[in-house]
């Protein structure tokens, strides 16, 4: 399903739903960041997705990373809680979701990088090369917070 992300856009449609989402910031031994190119909007992002019934937030993050990238990981800490009502996501079916996402830091445990039906590209990117990728501002904020850790998680 296609989606359009709106951020601080006065012409954005009004939200009509909210769902719990998770994402994971993972670096390899060289400090490169695991990124995907989403198939639903063609933007680059850290892997993540929606919490499913019967799983914990950490389980959802591990599952989403593996589904989208082939990488196995373990969640180690919370980077931030993102719930900015100025960020809404409009889906082709008419749902307009307000952002509500928990971003985790996770450690790489194994696996082999491969794309999926949700990720047309999976790559390891150095922090210095992030500016060359088309990344939504909400994901850039997560990357900023992950790359400059604070003593407490960020939250909105």
SSE blueprint:
Blueprint: E1 3-7, E2 17-18, E3 21-27, E4 33-38, E5 44-45, E6 48-50, H1 57-69, E7 71-82, E8 87-91, E9 96-98, E10 101-111, E11 119-125, H2 137-147, E12 154-155
Parallel strand pairs: 2-9, 3-10, 7-12
Antiparallel strand pairs: 1-8, 3-6, 4-5, 4-11, 7-10, 8-9
Task: Give me the side-by-side strand order of the main sheet.
Answer: 6-3-10-7-12
Share of helix, binned? 10-25%
Calculate the mean pLDDT score and round it: 97
- The name of the CATH topology is Nucleoside Triphosphate Pyrophosphohydrolase
Alpha plus pi helix count: 2
Describe the structure.
- With 156 residues, the protein is an alpha/beta fold.
- Helices cover 15% and strands 42% of the residues.
- The strands form three sheets. Strands 6-3-10-7-12 form a five-stranded mixed beta sheet, with helices on both faces. Strands 1-8-9-2 form a four-stranded mixed beta sheet, with no helix packed on it.
- A hairpin with a 4-residue loop joins strand 8 and strand 9.
Task: Name the descriptors.
single chain, 156 residues, alpha/beta, Nucleoside Triphosphate Pyrophosphohydrolase, 5-stranded mixed beta sheet, 12 strands, 42% strand, globular
Could you give a short description of this structure?
The protein is an alpha/beta fold and 156 residues long.
């Amino acid at each position: 399903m296609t989606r359009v992300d709106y951020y601080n856009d006065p012409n954005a449609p009004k939200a009509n739903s909210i769902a719990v989402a998770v994402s994971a910031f993972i670096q390899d031994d060289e400090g490169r960041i695991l990124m995907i190119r989403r198939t639903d909007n063609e933007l680059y992002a850290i892997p993540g997705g929606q919490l499913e019934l019967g799983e914990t937030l950490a389980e959802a993050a591990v599952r989403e990373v593996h589904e989208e990238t082939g990488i196995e990981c373990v969640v180690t800490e919370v980077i931030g809680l993102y719930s900015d009502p100025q960020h809404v996501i409009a889906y082709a079916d008419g749902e307009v979701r307000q952002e509500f996402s928990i971003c985790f830091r996770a450690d790489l445990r194994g696996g082999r990088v491969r794309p999926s039906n949700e990720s047309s590209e999976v790559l390891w990117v150095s922090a210095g090369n992030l500016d060359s990728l088309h990344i939504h501002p909400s994901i850039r904020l997560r990357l900023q917070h992950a790359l400059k850790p604070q003593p407490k998680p960020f939250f909105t």
